[in-house]
Amino acid sequence: MTGRPGDRSDFRLSRRGGADDERGPGTGVAVKPAARVKKPSMYKVVMLNDDYTPMEFVVMVLERFFGKTHDEATHIMMHVHQKGVGICGVYTYEIAETKVSQVMDLARQHQHPLQCTLEKA
Ligand code: TYC
């Protein structure tokens, strides 16, 4: 299996309709074996406290980009406010990276110092 388009090097002829059944050679049905799929690594999107970003802005960010309800967002924001750091969500790398960018871009546009990073889960 090379990953090249159209590559069927990992296909095998099935027993039924095999290469030398009554239909003769070369009539077998190509069957792809179950792929071995690795689970992707997961990444935490982590938010850091600061003294200037308004609480309502953090709550809005958690609702908008992390699908939290108002109550969930308020809880996470208060956790970060009190403990200094908190988890917004856990995602595969590309999604986590996109969410960090979305948060940082919006914070920058509003001139808030809010910081958000990614950590391997
Ligand atoms: N500490 C901020 C304030 O008192 C609120 C805040 C919460 C800021 C969470 C950032 O990630 C944060 N306005």
Q: Strand fraction band?
A: 15-25%
**Structural classification:** alpha+beta
Mean pLDDT: 84
Bound molecules: L-tyrosinamide
Describe the strand arrangement of the main beta sheet, using strand numbers. 4-3-5
Q: How widely separated are the two ends? A: 30 Å
Number of distinct beta strands: 5
Our count of helices gives 3
- Percent of residues in helices comes to 25-40%
Uncertain runs with pLDDT below 50, 5 residues or more?
Answer: 1-23
The biggest beta sheet, please?
3 strands, antiparallel
Shape: elongated
Order of helices and strands: EEEHHEHE
**What is the rounded Rg?**
25 Å
Describe this structure as you would to a colleague.
By secondary structure, this protein is an alpha+beta fold. It contains 3 helices and 5 strands. The strands form 2 sheets. A 3-stranded antiparallel sheet has the order 4-3-5. Bound molecules: L-tyrosinamide. Residues 47-51, 53-55, 58, 77, 80-81, 114 line the site of L-tyrosinamide. L-tyrosinamide binds next to strand 3, helix 1 and helix 2.
Descriptive labels:
single chain, 121 residues, alpha+beta, three-stranded antiparallel β-sheet, two-stranded antiparallel ribbon, 3 helices, 5 strands, 36% helix, binds L-tyrosinamide
In short:
This protein is 36% helix and 21% strand.
What topology does this entry show?
Elements: E1 12-13, E2 30-31, E3 42-48, H1 55-66, H2 70-83, E4 85-92, H3 93-109, E5 115-120
Antiparallel strand pairs: 1-2, 3-4, 3-5
Bound molecules: L-tyrosinamide.
